[in-house]
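Encode chain A's predicted structure.
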Amino acid sequence: MYQVPFEFEALDYEGSLAELHSALRFGICPMLETVEDMLAELADPDLAFDCVQIAGTNGKTSTSRYTAAILAGEGKRCALYTSPELVSYTERMEVAGTPVSEADFAYGISAAAEAGRRVNARRAAAGERPYDITEFDTLTVAAMVVFARAGVDVCVLECGMGGRWDATSAAKSIRSVAVTGIGLDHIRVLGDTLEAIAGEKAAIIKPGRTCVLGSGCAEAPSVEAVFLEQCASAGVTPTLVLETPADDAQAPDDAALPRAAFRVTKRPSRLGAPLELDVTTSRADYHELAALKPSYQAANIACAVALCEDHLGRALDAEKLYQSVIACPTPGRFQLLRPEPPLLIDACHNPQSVQAFLASLSEITFVDGSEPLLLCAVLADKDVKGIVEQLSPRFPKVACTQTSSPRALAVRELAELFRDAGSEIVGEYADVPSALSALCEESLIVCGSITLAGEVAAEFA
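Encoded structure for chain A:
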């Protein structure tokens, strides 16, 4: 069993949160050396298990969750590392389908923080500039410690941002990777074109790894070309995920690369109704998979199926797969928090994910036939105008708020954008609790940012 190779003072949970918050001042630092050196100081806990890494603009959290659930169904003791959390920091680290305890979380943060201090002390002694150790650096290293101590077989790593410089890429035991798709996001860090962003995410495709390219990677030929060029350069043969039209159960004739074709056979018509799909890979046919989720999850489920097959090097057990998929939770994704009056949250946070959410929303009807009100908040560093342009035609009446995130767009600015787009603003609220209190008798659709979904979910926890 892995043990931290040095002594340190273990913080309590509140102390570990204070440690993380102190690292927020460093923001985003695109480099891997920080995490690599911290892991080395800890005697490489990341080598205690295999890793599966998932990148993408949209769908990577759900795909990560389905991947972890499927691998667990195949008998693997599986860990899951995702971000951000909805309610508690402990949600970022799961072992065997359950968030780690506050005590284990605090232990990991304490070990990571001490490793960082030791690395920086050595750098200072050598006349080198100390690293700016970010919150995500500390969380990622802490997760490796927690998972190694828990004796997991495999860890599913969701990239926080990009891929090339993402802290998760410092893990030395990554065996399989997937990219779900590409959209314009984090443009100040990753680049301002789809091709540039694709290049950053494609960097996780390296020699010796298996690779799955989700259906979102092929939406633009120039983007798909970036991924295929990286695969060719790394000597990797990717599995391509594609949707087969409902009236054509056969995959395209082009068999140059292995494919995982999915076909939606039943779309949910109301909240809580099942999505049903078939997935066909080069190894097996999986019929009548089901999930109590909206239609957009079909692509994520298919991507996870292909990724698990590639990682295991074999077909999956069909019955175990069915059970794993239908039981897999996806918090904050098309999640009904209150049945009457209905309150539905979704963590869509850019134009592409909003479009997918609205497409699924159009397929369902509310039991009472009511037209729900939109409650929206967004982060200022997102494509705010693009989000509003997607939402305003669907919701003639909008309530605006802002989350506690330092990146939150001011509520007045958001309300003005919706007014300019033609929506009627029925309320402007300084924070999420006051918005929910004022709108407690309304049917609500809540979306616009992950932090908004999280803060609303916390009110119902």
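The longest strand covers residues 174-181.
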